[in-house]
Amino acid sequence: MFESLSDRLSGIFDKLTGRGALSENDVNEALREIRRALIEADVALPVVRSFTDKVRNRAVGAEVVKSVTPGQMVVKIVHDQLVEMLGGDAGGLGGGIDLNAPAPVAIMMVGLQGSGKTTTTGKIARRLTQRDKRKVLMASLDTRRPAAQEQLKVLGEQNDVDTLPIVEGQGPVEIAKRAMTAARLGGYDVVMLDTAGRIHIDEPLMVEMSEVKAAANPHEILLVADALTGQDAVNLAKSFDERVGITGIALTRMDGDGRGGAALSMQAVTGKPVKLIGTGEKSDALEDFYPKRIADRILGMGDIVSLVEKASEAIDAEKAAEMAKKMQKGHFDLNDLAEQLRQMEKMGGMSSMMGMLPGVGKMKKQLDAANLDDNVFKRQVAIISSMTKQERAKPELLKASRKKRVAAGSGVDVSDVNKLLKMHRQMADMMKMMGKKKGMLGKMMGGL
Ligand code: GDP
Predict the structure, then answer these.
(1) Is 229 annotated to bind ligand?
(2) Where does GTP bind (predicted)?
């Protein structure tokens, strides 16, 4: 899985991580090589473009953290971007199927003939039965291929999973309804509906899928697609999603896929998560698709990634402690404010930060009154950046003409500069006040 991409990337990073300093040229060269590696891995072009653009932007804006090399920093940025491209780690994307619905939960399996649909149905049913201790009923709705229903029955027997008795002459919708009724009566937790495939997508197939969907009201509709077909698998997922609506993708034959283009582009192109991957013909060859784990596997640089994470945390803690000390002494100039704004932005904004601190409701109100909106952080940092060093250290120097210059330099009105100065005064007063109540400030800043 992903071997060729993995090899290419490690070659690129070996060159980068050994060096003490990186020029813009080095970074650009690395990005060009990463771009080439992704294209060779058959990743969709728009996905490649957006990937390298985002890495470039993040690399340019990145603060260089003490104790790691710039090359290691780049590895971390590429890793994080890879996780994002694969669907991110938030919001329950990837990582298996969702059974969070009243029983019996219907899972409808769709896909082309030969993609591994029946095999994957059996794999999922086996895992739900053995690992998750659910009572599962499988039903084949494939009335076109004579042996299909029999194939599922055999799989059921091999894996100790019940299958719906075969009744000759019934159509897919009838079978789906019968399966749901049997599951309800039999106290099953999950019903797996293995639908019929075709060689290509065609209109009758889509109509049939929509009818089965309406009859069974499935909680999950999983598209089974062959990873070896690369971008065709991605286009297939797009079509199925547009016509039938899918909740996720199971990618089969990942065991033979050294390139990984389908897995890498799927989420970015279709907006639907890869939930499971098939890694062999045996009925236990099924894995959850976790973006972070996959990114770790592709890069093979887990130690560098965690090194950079730890170093960044240490830097943040150091800065917070330094600032807490200054504030306790009653120093809080505009440099500190700018640093504070940057930190808050990193933390997800003022309101989320305030939400974490107990007993600061009153302070929050005051800050709201000072117009401290999360969205204006950047502009405020820009205003402070347009001031001279002395002005930042001694805000009282900022009289009318200087304010005008600062406003022009940062592209805002003088009234915005005034607002910022007022906010700074209020914050400085508050900090002084809180500094007297020792402990609370330390706690607050430690939490930053
Ligand atoms: P269906 O027509 O979509 O139901 O496809 P099948 O489930 O009958 O699978 C077609 C072939 O692909 C079978 O020989 C399976 O053993 C094989 N297959 C399915 N999934 C995988 C996988 O993840 N890896 C490998 N190597 N083979 C698979």
Answers:
(1) no
(2) 111-118, 194-198, 252-255
Instruction: Convert the pLDDT of each residue in 170-217 to its tens digit.
Output: 999 999 999 999 999 999 999 999 999 888 888 888 999 999 999 999
- The enclosing domain of 166 has a CATH number of 3.40.50.300
Sheet holding 248-252, edge to edge: 162-163, 136-140, 190-194, 105-111, 220-226, 248-252, 274-278, 286-288
Q: Show the domain range for 350.
A: 316-447
Average pLDDT of 252-271? 91
For 74-83, the pLDDT digits (tens) are: 888 888 899 9
Number of domains making up the chain: 3
Give Rg (Cα) of the chain.
29
What's the pTM?
A: 0.70
Q: Where are the alpha helices (DSSP H) in 22-169?
A: 24-40, 45-61, 70-85, 117-130, 148-159
Instruction: Say how many C-beta atoms besides its own lie within 10 A of residue 5's C-beta.
Output: 23
119 in ligand 1 pocket by Cβ < 6 Å? Answer: yes
Q: Does residue 127 sit in the same domain as residue 198?
A: yes
Residue of 222, 223, 254, 281 to mutate, ligand 1, most atoms within 8 A of C-beta: 281
